[in-house]
User: Fold this.
Amino acid sequence: MRMSSVPQATQSSFSRGLSVLVAVAENGDVSVEDVAAELGMPLSTAYRYIRTLRDFELVEEHEGRYVPGWRLLELSGQHLTHARLAEIGASVLRDVVDTLSETAVLTVRVGSQAMCLRQIESPHPIRYAFRINQLLPLHAGAGQRVLLAYAPATVIQRVLASPLPRYTGHTHDRERLRHDLEHIRSTGAAVSHGELNAGAVAVAAPVYAGGEVVCSLTVAGPESRCGTKSWPAHALASLRAAADTLSLALERSGR
Assistant:
């Protein structure tokens, strides 16, 4: 996490509160201990500021960790963007599932985390899926890594400098992750094999709007169906067509 550039001793109560808010907004998913350590303030002080921000619905608590609240997202414009993505993206995801019969997911970046904004599950009884609004690590999984590859340099540096939990034996280490981010930017796609969930195969592509990557589209299924040499290329062709459709729809809705 990034250290505050303003010495703690010289900060006013107002600026310290803003520093706490910025820490949550930039990191996307933090504990009070994380915030206190980053800003060099007593744990009790961090709790007090977090509690106030929560009362104003600027941050939300989920199982002892804090994420940007709906009011902060609305003020930043992310709330509107996410709502539009969820609404427009549903039909695009449905088309992917109709074509490939595997789960299709629309993921956005929230600070140093990814979030499952919308998904359509595979019709197969054995399938992979996330929870809506579930926070996911940026370094593990095709869709999340696409978001990291196109994130601002400060976010990439923060993730690479942070501990990278290994969820399976296939989760990328720091060196492989750094190399793969370059590969994603050069090819515009990512493929993962059991990095977050053992036995899952996933392909992802970025979605652009206004010249920026606003989300990723992912299709994922079990290795028993998606582990062939031809499946990733077939899935990527469908995803790229879906990404173009969603990009055009977003541009039209923006106008």
